[in-house]
């Protein structure tokens, strides 16, 4: 029985001796693998840095092009949104009678200024710009008269509000200019 116990106890001791003997060799192999992995990672990182350093002008150009395209896309979307919020043309034929009554009322209010107002409304609709200086130049009227006409165009909904030094937004599309002329007799 003693021998059996010795054999049983001797076998685990032999296994432990094998594990202890294999331990340093395994540790060295693992350490070599870790060193190789670390050096490989550092090499890849260095290659990426060199790539960025060598190709940064291409990255700048790509960034500028992408940024410009993004600005143009956002600008077009904002412009489309602004025009969608504004009056998209004259009302349908069902409202044409009411529109004619409003134009007759406006003609009576303006009196002698009706012809200048009519020319200004058609001009800004065809040209798709509206500024006091432009009206003064194209209609050959004084600055005060151009300001008065511009204010009236804004109140009647032909143009948007003032935007500083930039031209105002014209709320009627260019293709509706002929229809506007027909609705606003001379």
Note down, in words, how this protein is organized.
The chain has 186 residues and is an all-alpha fold. It folds into 2 domains: 40-85; 93-183, Arc Repressor Mutant, subunit A (Orthogonal Bundle). The chain is built from 6 helices and no strands. It has helices at residues 2-85, 96-110, 114-127, 132-139, 143-155, 177-183. It is rod-shaped, with a radius of gyration of 41 Å.
- What global shape is seen? rod-shaped
How much is the radius of gyration in Å?
41 Å
Q: Find the structural class using helix and strand composition.
A: mainly alpha
What is the CATH homologous superfamily assignment of the largest domain?
Winged helix-like DNA-binding domain superfamily/Winged helix DNA-binding domain
pLDDT < 50 stretches:
1-10, 12-21
Summed up, the helix count is 6
**Domain module tally:** 2
What is the highest CATH level, the class of the largest domain? Answer: Mainly Alpha
The end-to-end distance, rounded to whole angstroms, is 130 Å
Beta percentage is under 5%
- Summed over residues and divided by their number, the pLDDT gives a mean of 79
Described by strand count, sense and barrel closure, the largest sheet is: none
CATH topology of the largest domain: Arc Repressor Mutant, subunit A
Strands, count? 0
Secondary-structure element pattern, one letter each: HHHHHH
Name given to the CATH architecture of the largest domain: Orthogonal Bundle
Q: How much helix is in the residues?
A: over 70%
Protein name: FtsK gamma domain-containing protein
InterPro entries: Ftsk_gamma (IPR018541), WH-like_DNA-bd_sf (IPR036388), WH_DNA-bd_sf (IPR036390)
Keywords: Membrane, Transmembrane, Transmembrane helix
């Amino acid at each position: 029985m003693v021998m059996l116990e010795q054999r049983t106890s001797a076998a685990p001791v032999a296994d432990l001796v094998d594990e202890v003997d294999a331990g340093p060799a395994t540790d060295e192999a693992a350490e070599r693998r870790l060193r190789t992995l670390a050096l490989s990672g550092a090499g890849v990182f260095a290659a990426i840095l060199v790539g960025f350093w060598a190709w940064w002008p291409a990255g700048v150009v790509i960034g500028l092009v992408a940024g410009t395209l993004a600005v143009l896309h956002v600008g077009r979307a904002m412009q489309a949104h602004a025009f969608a919020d504004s009056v998209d043309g004259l009302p349908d034929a069902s409202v044409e009678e009411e529109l004619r009554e409003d134009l007759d009322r406006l003609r009576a209010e303006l009196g002698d200024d009706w012809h200048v107002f009519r020319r200004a409304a058609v001009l800004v609709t065809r040209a798709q710009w509206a500024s006091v200086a432009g009206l003064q130049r194209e209609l050959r009227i004084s600055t005060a008269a151009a300001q008065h006409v511009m204010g009236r165009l804004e109140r009647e909904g032909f143009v948007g509000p003032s935007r500083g030094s930039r031209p105002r937004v014209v709320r009627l599309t260019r293709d509706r200019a002929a229809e506007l002329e027909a609705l606003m007799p001379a």
